[in-house]
Amino acid sequence: MKKKIIISMLLAMFMLVLTLGMTGCGGSSDSGDQEEPEVVTLESYYNEHADQKEDVMYNLLGDESEDVTIEAEIKGNDMIQNISYKKTYGEQYYETLSQYFDEHLSELEGAAYPLIEQVALQSGVDENDITINMTYLDGDGTEIWNHVFKTADKTE
Fold first, then answer.
1. Cα 43 from Cα 93, distance rounded (Å)
2. What does CATH list as the number for 2-22+40-153?
């Protein structure tokens, strides 16, 4: 059972890596006649660029598996992703799962920081103001693990 849980977590993490990496892709809708208004937050940028927001949200959500559902939203300069297991595993697994995620944090950072840089370039928002908040939830909604990725905390 632990192997299936770990495989599910890895699949969800790699879906995040692959899908979030696509958010930097997108064309400009600037006709050259008008100067775009100054962008204050990621949320305001994507509200003004609905086509790009749709692409970002599609990529953040990825493909749900039989084991997890993924919800994503952008609030202010925060990209929030909740990955919820469909099954409730219970508290006896939380420490093991949390340790697993902590041990693989560098792999998640390898995807998160380049994503922050890409989104910053696309939106014009300072990358130091952007965060990715990733949370894994048990089937009953209990938080198993959470990490906030921000450039200021990045270690070289």
1. 35
2. 3.30.300.250
Per the model's pLDDT, the better-predicted residue between 36 and 14 turns out to be 36
As a whole number, mean pLDDT of residues 62-66 equals: 74
Strand spans (E) along 23-156: 68-75, 78-85, 131-137, 143-150
Per-domain residue ranges for the chain? 2-22+40-153
- Do 86 and 139 touch, CB atoms closer than 8 A? yes
Q: In what order do the strands lie in the sheet with 143-150?
A: 68-75, 78-85, 131-137, 143-150
How does strand 143-150 pair with strand 131-137? Answer: antiparallel
Element (H, E) at 12: helix 2-20
User: pLDDT band at residue 127, thresholds of 50, 70 and 90?
Assistant: very high
